[in-house]
Structures are given as C-alpha cells and as structure tokens.
Design brief:
Elements (H helix, E strand, L loop, with lengths): L8 E8 L5 E8 L13 E4 L3 E5 L10 E8 L5 E4 L4 E5 L7 E11 L5 E11 L60
Parallel strand pairs: 3-9
Antiparallel strand pairs: 1-2, 4-7, 5-8, 6-7, 8-9
Length: 184
Amino acid sequence: MPGQTATASNITVSLQDTFSDTVNITLAINILTDLFRQNFTDLNVTAGTSVSVDVKTFLWDPSDVDLELSNEPADSWLKLESSSLVISGTTPSVQDALDNAVTVTATSKSTKQKETRTIKIHIDPSDIVSTNTGMPAPTATATTEAHTADSTAKPPSIGHTPLFASGPVDCSNCSVHMPPAQES
C-alpha cells in the first residue's frame, strides 16, 4: 500500500533501435486512495475568464467529504461552494503570466481521514492590446521638419525622415505632409 505522501506521476521511457529510430512511452502512475479517485488536471486559462471545477467527479464518495480550499499566492478570486463541491471564480486581470496553486483538502466525515490534491492554474494575460504604449503621442511638428534630399530622389513610400543629405526638399506637394486634394 502506498504511503500517505505518495502522489501520481508520469514516467517517460525512451527506446532507440540501431537505426536511431526512437519511441517514447509515457507511463501514467495513479495512486488509488480512499477519498480522491484521480488527480486534478492543470488548467491554462486567460485573464478575465471564468473557471469552474466540479470536485465531485474527482472523489470516490462526495457525500462523505468536507472540503477546504487554499490558494498560493493567496488570492480571493476562487471560491468553494461547499453544498455543490464546485470551485469557481473569474481569473484576475494580469499584465504578466501568473501561476496559482490551489490546494484542495478532503476530510472524510466518517473516518476523519484527510487527503490533499493540488490544482495548478496558469493564467495568461488577455489578448486585448492596450492603446497606452507608454510612448508620447506623435505631435504635428514631428512630420513637418525640413527634409534634406536631392531634388530628383523619390521620397520613401511610408513617411519622410531625413534620409537624404544633399539638400532641402520642397514638401509643398508631398502626400505625406499634405492631405490629398479634394475634388469639387
């Protein structure tokens, strides 16, 4: 019988033949326990999304179990609904990826035996792009600088910058600095 601290794990076995062909075999080792029938799977979620884990599906006898929940780091965004044995919440908004470890402790009402399992939750920042880049907004004077170029050179197709050094450029007909003429 496995000890109280025994946990499930995966072992990968690699086999290689003389032709350098390789096969990898992953062995999943599950430890049968009195309270949990299986381990929780790790969750990868996006910031601002809802998370819900029905713990009953992981227990042998949900009616004989009291649950306790603790989070690392200590956040209050996850709650345990003790009557339904569901852990749920909305992931926090984050700038950088965040890893949470949620410890679920089950205690048998009849035998008082305790078992603990962990849910690892990886939170990625949302895909919403912020319009505030921290850079100063462009000003009107940024595009009206005098440019230098020889008079026969074609301006760059996307904006002007002082790329050419042979003389001033007349920007009076420049589409970069002047809006296109409107037809009447």
